[in-house]
Amino acid sequence: MSARSFASFVLMLLLAACGGDSDSPLSGSAFAAASARASQAATWKPLAPGTSWQWQIDGNRINEKVLDGVNNPRKMFDVDMEQTDAGTIQRLKAKGIYVVCYMEVGGREDNRGDAARFPDSVLGNPVEGYEDHERWLDIRQTEILMPLMLARLDQAKKKGCDGIEPDLDDSYRQETGFPLTRDDQLRYNTALIAAAHDRGMSMGLKNGSGIAVAMAKVADWVLNEQCNRFHECDDYASFIALNKAVFNVEYTRPDGMKLADFCPADNQANFDGILKLSSDTLSALPRAACRFEGAAGRG
Predict the structure, then answer these.
(1) Please, how many CA atoms are within 13 Å of residue 152, restricted to the half-sphere of its CB?
(2) What is the DSSP letter of 178?
(3) Bridge-based pairing state of the strands 202-203 and 205-206
(4) CA-closest candidate to residue 297, choices 243, 250, 244
(5) Sign of the four-CA dihedral 26, 104, 173, 49
(6) Alpha carbon 252 to chain centroid distance?
(7) CATH number for the domain whose boundaries are 3-289
(8) 197, 113, 279, 191: CA torsion to nearest 10
């Protein structure tokens, strides 16, 4: 069976599972089978520890030079999928940079081009901090959501994205307005990853400390915000054990975090840590890294 057929099989398996009782547990054997099938798709690759990276999803023109001076052959640049044009993505790739594209999978933002395609039946509570334009999704309703997400993945593939950052992929722990379970989340995330693999793209885990051990078997890397601040970094060691990158970002705001506060721990854990201003900006600069970019913050 071809790699594409393997990934398609996984997606069909998981969608069938999701179509049943939303409260039924995801069995260990079913999850293991899905993981094994997903891992056989050969056209994508996980990102390994020791990858320098940048994250700019502020909607402004991408600063394509940020990683130019980094003395590391492995580089990843995370951009907004919808707001970044294909030309920018191709120029980054021409420099040997692996381009990850951000898209939401657990919420609907009013300002996205496909926002009108999400019916009211899948929209839950407002997302805290973004109440004016963002609402949680009922990830159990895969018959509605998966076609929308597959269309986004198709757009990402067309633009040339190498991987996908799936934001709000741990919504089961939030006040969504729906009785979501951990198993609902595992089913949904694994189906999305299989679909990304089917298109030749990797997909990571975004935060999700409570499902990190399980998702390390399926996701290709993880992007975590503030695991040092919230004492959650140990949850991501399972990715490192599988030679999958842990991209950690800490923020200067609101606590005055500095490189010296977390880089020794990140370096010891083999995480790829950076420091940025705040989670509500994520502009090109300021940015500082724990390793491969000078002595600052090395542990």
Answers:
(1) 27
(2) S
(3) unpaired
(4) 250
(5) positive
(6) 22
(7) 3.20.20.70
(8) -30
- Tens of pLDDT, residues 190-234: 999 999 999 999 999 999 999 999 999 999 999 999 999 999 999
| Chain mean position to CA 133 | 21
Percent of the chain with pLDDT over 90: 81
Q: Kindly list the domain boundaries of the chain, sorted by start residue.
A: 3-289
Tokens at 113, concatenated: 């081009």
Residue type for position 18: C
Q: Are strands 52-56 and 98-104 parallel, antiparallel or unpaired?
A: unpaired
Among candidates 289, 256, 293, 265, which has minimal Cα distance to 275?
Answer: 289
CA distance 106 to 168: 5
Sign of CA dihedral 20, 22, 28, 30: positive
Residues 6 or more apart from 131 whose CB is under 8 A from it? Answer: none
- Asked if 162 contacts 93 with a C-beta cutoff of 8 angstroms, the reply is yes
Q: What pLDDT score was predicted for residue 255?
A: 86
Alpha helices in the chain (DSSP H): 3-18, 28-38, 86-94, 142-159, 182-198, 212-215, 237-241, 259-269
In the sheet where 75-80 sits, what is the strand order? 52-56, 75-80, 98-104, 163-167, 202-203
Half-sphere exposure of 208 (CA within 13 A, CB side): 30
| 294 Cβ neighbours under 8 A, 6+ residues apart | none
Model confidence pLDDT, tens digit, residues 157-166:
999 999 999 9
Tell me how long the chain is.
299
Instruction: Confirm if 124 and 63 have CB atoms less than 8 A apart.
Output: no
CA-nearest of 23, 74, 85 to 46 is 74
| pLDDT of 123 above 80 | yes
